[in-house]
Specification:
This is DNA-directed DNA polymerase. By secondary structure, this protein is of the alpha/beta class. It has twelve helices and five strands. The protein folds into two domains: 153 residues, P-loop containing nucleotide triphosphate hydrolases (Rossmann fold, 3-Layer(aba) Sandwich), CATH 3.40.50.300; 160 residues, no CATH class. Helix 7 packs antiparallel against helix 8, helix 7 runs parallel beside helix 9 and helix 9 packs antiparallel against helix 11. The radius of gyration is 23 Å and the shape is globular.
Length: 338
């Protein structure tokens, strides 16, 4: 699934706040999708930003400041690698220089950040020189690879990064499972919420979509792991292969939790449209559902709708704990739609 820049940042920010931020991200998509801007926002998120206008907004009505550019952020804490001017390639020496910079000491509570622009211009030798840093990064190190051509990168690079494919707001498309949930919401919305049976019907649809996505994630990661085993089992130690097995297990779990969060966002966003209809706001996230959300808005009080949204947000928070997933979903859906 591809994300808008804002949505991708929200997901990254949530992971950071839970102290579960990955150490390497591959940001892909066309230039207009905002890959460099997202990288800048991530750097400012972890290291803070000195804003000369801070404190001047006395009435709280000024827009948030624009993030600094990658060029402006480059310095002691942020090392940026770009293709060399003549060859338009990223050399092995550049990547080794980046690796050295990541291991240099930095201020307390500050992150060292390595940004690789047009990462597909590395080439095999430079990518292999970068693998060690990806596999064993130093503490408080964040690596951001940005490219519009991720298919040119080695599978070993791809498998070691959290991938954030970006799209522009104009190109937002429904992802797998979203339309299924919207269809069930439309059917139940016509009948009206407030029924235990309907809330459990929606929960069952949610679980079916989630199970399907989990199976797809597991299949893809199992295939990637098998490819690595075939490629490296003759040249690496067994401990490394075991580490890669654990890596793919963790990756599968992480991607599954992200899918679950996205599906919950569909429900929250849909209810947000209902609230907008209730308040006569024209801009909707799901305009194709406008008739249904308008109908629901006519039969629900604003207090009730806000309560349903609050229950869903509570469910999302609860699922971040060690609670039983199925029990939390059942109770959460009954509170939200029952």
């Amino acid at each position: 699934m591809a994300y808008t820049e804002d949505r991708a940042f929200e997901l990254v920010q949530a992971a950071y706040e839970r102290q579960r931020l990955g150490h390497a991200f591959l940001i892909t998509g066309e230039a207009l999708a905002g890959g460099e801007r997202l990288a800048s926002r991530m750097i400012e998120m972890i290291n803070g930003v000195d804003d000369p206008t801070a404190g001047l907004d006395l009435f709280g009505d000024a827009p948030p400041p624009e993030p600094q550019t990658i060029d402006e952020l480059e310095g002691e804490l942020v090392r940026v690698v770009r293709p060399e001017m003549k060859s338009r390639r990223i050399s092995v020496s550049q990547m080794r220089g980046l690796e050295k910079a990541m291991y240099q000491a930095s201020e307390a509570d500050k992150w060292k950040v390595g940004v690789v622009l047009e990462a597909d211009r590395m080439g095999v030798e430079a990518e292999n020189a970068f693998l060690k840093t990806l596999e064993e990064p130093p503490a408080n190190c964040l690596l951001l690879l940005i490219t519009s051509n991720p298919d040119r990168l080695l599978p070993t690079i791809l498998s070691r990064c959290v991938q954030l494919p970006l799209i522009t707001n104009a190109k937002r498309e429904a992802y797998d499972g979203e339309e299924d949930l919207l269809e069930v919401l439309a059917k139940l919305g016509k009948a009206g919420f407030g029924s235990v049976g309907r809330s459990l019907t929606l929960k069952a649809a949610f679980s079916r979509v989630l199970d399907r996505r989990k199976a797809a994630i597991s299949k893809a990661n199992e295939a990637a792991q098998k490819e690595e085993v075939l490629q490296y089992k003759q040249t690496t130690e067994g401990d490394w292969l075991k580490q890669r097995e654990n890596y793919y297990k963790a990756l599968t779990e992480s991607e599954y939790l992200l899918e679950r969060s996205q599906l919950l966002d569909v429900l929250i966003t849909w209810l947000g449209d209902v609230v907008r209809q209730k308040c006569d706001v024209e801009a909707l996230d799901y305009p194709q559902q406008a008739k249904i959300t308008k109908l629901v808005a006519e039969h629900e009080s604003l207090e009730s709708l806000l309560g349903r949204m609050e229950a869903l947000e509570g469910l999302a928070s609860l699922l971040e704990t060690n609670v039983s997933e199925q029990l939390a979903l059942e109770v959460g859906f009954m509170k939200s739609f029952g």
